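User: My advisor asked me to double-check a structure prediction for Transmembrane 9 superfamily member before group meeting. I don't want to rely on an old file, so could you generate it fresh from this sequence?
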Amino acid sequence: MSKMEALKLSLIIISLLLTNLRSIASSPHNHRYNVGDHVPLFVNKVGPLNNPSETYQYYELPFCGPDPVVKKKESLGEVLSGDRLTTALYKLNFRENKVAETLCHKKLEGDDVAKFRDAVINDFYFQMYYDDLPFWGFVGKIEEDSWTLEKKSLKYFLFKHVQFDVLYNGNQIIEVHAIGDPNQVVDITEDVGVDVQFTYSVVWNTTSAAFDTRMDRYSRASSLPIHLKIHWFSFINSVITIMLLIGLLTLLFMRRLRNDLRTFSTGDEEDDKEVGWKYIHGDVFRYPRNKSLFCAVMGVGTQLLTLVCSLFVLVCLGILYPYNRGTLCTALVILYSLTSVVAGYTTASFHCQFAETGWERSVLLAGIMYAGPLFVISSILNVVAVSYGATAALPFGTIMVIVLLYAFLTIPLLVLGGVIGYLFRSEFQSPCATKRYPREIPPLPWYRDTPCQMFLGGFLPFSAIVLELQHLYASLWGYRIFTLPSILFIMFIILILITAILSVGLTYIQLSVEDHQWWWRSVFCGGSTAIFMFAYCIYFYTRSSMSGLLQFSFVFGYNACMCYAFFLMLGTVGFRSSLMFVRYIYRAVKSE
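Assistant: Sure, here is a fresh prediction for Transmembrane 9 superfamily member from the sequence you gave:
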């Protein structure tokens, strides 16, 4: 082989290696592209602007589509979130400008025109994903044709041209927008067939924004100064509330309780009558009714607390962030399964403090206490979604995956936790011996009954979090992005502290009137904040623009599940804090 042939062969090998390295360095997986590279674009869904849960597959409207339509393989979380990504005819190659590119010619029949008109009337938007960046655009527009004092005429137009504005930095895509051209429209006011040429343009521009910050723009609207001021006002309001409660209870402990203990040590019978909680020392640690149910509440409440704290940890680690498609739903399903071992352990260990047998029933109740109502409500909502043909309807395969996950991961971990709790059981630590027969509870005025205490125990914590709850609901049932998870976590901690402090105070008041049935009441008073949260959900819905059976069902159905979870969590906090307090005061009495 001559030197010239060897040189040519070397050049060919080097060029092939450079081509391979270039194709490896530029791909949709690392979001780096070269000029002319294909960038994946998927259409997702359409739906009315005022009903975030009412979404339909993109090609439910007679848009131009490929033949055949190929669906993107999706994760469990994406399906649960209602995402249904499919291929599209749009070709947006990297840094290739296009002007009035023809998408397709389509004959819209009368039924197609009626579908588009209904979409325009209901302010339908479409959602697409380009290089994993979500963006939205409207289907059409409404204009006033002519009007008089007696009648106003409206005309409906369909956008037939879409302009894509894409910003890039180097070899990475930073931002994308889709804008319907208001000057290129089709009149769809009448149910008359029409020939439409759908077109699109692509405009590329450079930006100095970094790739790592490209998701920040989705949260800018929620980070406006007025919204930040509301967040901080809510935070300061909550801090002031908890400081007042701490001061109040400190006064209670330092004066009233100290006087109670001092009175006990004097032995003055007349003074002792003023301290009613000492007389029920033989009943205050009596096991509650429905022992298995009570233990299950403690187990599931502890599990859900662990789940919520784990979610906040994932947010702090950057694993969960806005528009990380389906990750939140996936995390919820997996974490619920993994934390079931906590529910099993807590339920069994708490039950075995009362009795060594029957813990299996308590663990079984823990397995269905939250999952049961959630499954029933989700099934009903799925039927409603199927009747509407909405993307919220879960495919049969997804339902089977969830069922199998519950059967082969959640239940075994629940049983495993129960067995561990049984093996490492301990006796209930009671400072006072329990009498054989319960003491009769004296008649009490109406304001000392459970409903009144629940109102007080729920209203004060709710008043401390109501402003932050508004932001949370706007994020769940709207398009606002919750941009300050750290503030949300702090508010959650404050909610737990206020619940614990109030539960202690209400339990002390209850014991002072010789009412020893505080176990269940501490759960109800602690969890009563959830009732106010659901009531605020009703207020939020009535003040919003949401409408229709589907949106109504999803808002109230899933909010009921969320508030029920908060009831179990806060009820557990209420009992645990009350138990610590009761043990403390009766241990102090015993030491005296």
